[in-house]
Amino acid sequence: MSIIIVSGAAGFLGSHLVRSLIDQGELVVGIDNLSSGLISNLSDIFTHPNFRFIQTDVSDNDSIKTLYQEDVKEIYHLASQASPKFYQSNPFETIQVNTQGTYNLLNLALNKKAKFLFTSTSEAYGDPEVHPQSEDYRGNVNTWGPRACYDEAKRLGEVICYEFYERYGVKVKVARIFNTYSAGLRNDDGRVISNFITQAIKGNDITVYGDGSQTRSFCYVDDNIRALILMMKHEEANGEIINIGNPTEYSVLEVARIIKEKTESESKIVYCPLPKDDPKVRKPDISKAQRILGWAPVVTLEEGLTHTIKNYQSLLLGAHSK
């Protein structure tokens, strides 16, 4: 039986994707070097007969050569550190996995005539001067700053995908993923929702960067995973870049206040200097996803936060009581 490869399988999105594919009866090989992914994310499926895990780095082509012996039908390339906290600490690894790692897995896809999906990012738009952002917007990205190792590596990864699609006819799809969250997001991840919820539950100050007027669009993980699987299935998505995100826009300060209220926290909201190159606005135009995939998110921020907060409370308060 043919297998599906998921790189970054122990990460936030990767582990959710693996679980969804197994639930659909697929045989999945998960790959992760565990630089930021957690093996605990896979604990409930680690011994599942339809799952096999390989701890390795896809940037090293020799380490994935055994996969050339497999009957591979699809490759989801999710491997990459995605939080500024992690990728700014490991810039060269981040560049490598999104460039050399992408090239290595695309060569595997070419050899096996497999479909290939690359998870790019809304960071490809940088600090956008067009709002909302559609896929034809070329972005406003700084190549000389702390976020560039991630932003530009993803953009170059897209270029490599383009060349394999145009030159060799590999069935490549590129998903530009906007802010995604759920209960599975590491509470030490350093991103907005994980930060705010963790701080609120612990009673620490909720740290808002800048004045909190900068906006983000938050997509619950179930909606995101559904979109990725639809992209892989739809032939019309071959050779396309498609935004995946929730177009409902919130200011960061609004999100902090919602979380403070939902957690019934006594935490104070405090303001810190805005990090360099932090985008002022972020909102996807998802008309292409609606047209090609018939996809739109269905989980509201209120619903998603309720699930996420409940899980974090169980995790953090449970650990505190031990």
TrEMBL record:
Recall the GO molecular function terms of this protein's record: GDP-mannose 4,6-dehydratase activity
Q: Where is the NAD(P)-binding domain?
A: 6-307
Give compartment(s). Golgi apparatus, Golgi stack membrane
Segments traversing the membrane: none
Q: Which Pfam families match?
A: GDP_Man_Dehyd
**Enzyme class (EC, first level):** lyase
Membrane topology, as annotated: Single-pass type II membrane protein
The pathway to which it is assigned is: Nucleotide-sugar biosynthesis; UDP-alpha-D-xylose biosynthesis; UDP-alpha-D-xylose from UDP-alpha-D-glucuronate: step 1/1
State which Enzyme Commission number(s) the record gives. Answer: 4.1.1.35
Keywords in alphabetical order, please. Decarboxylase, Golgi apparatus, Lyase, Membrane, NAD, Signal-anchor, Transmembrane, Transmembrane helix
Q: Which cofactor does it need?
A: NAD(+)
Entry similarity comment: Belongs to the NAD(P)-dependent epimerase/dehydratase family. UDP-glucuronic acid decarboxylase subfamily.
- Know the name of this protein? UDP-glucuronate decarboxylase
| Source organism of this protein record | Paenibacillus shunpengii
User: According to the entry, what is the taxonomic lineage of the organism?
Assistant: Bacteria, Bacillati, Bacillota, Bacilli, Bacillales
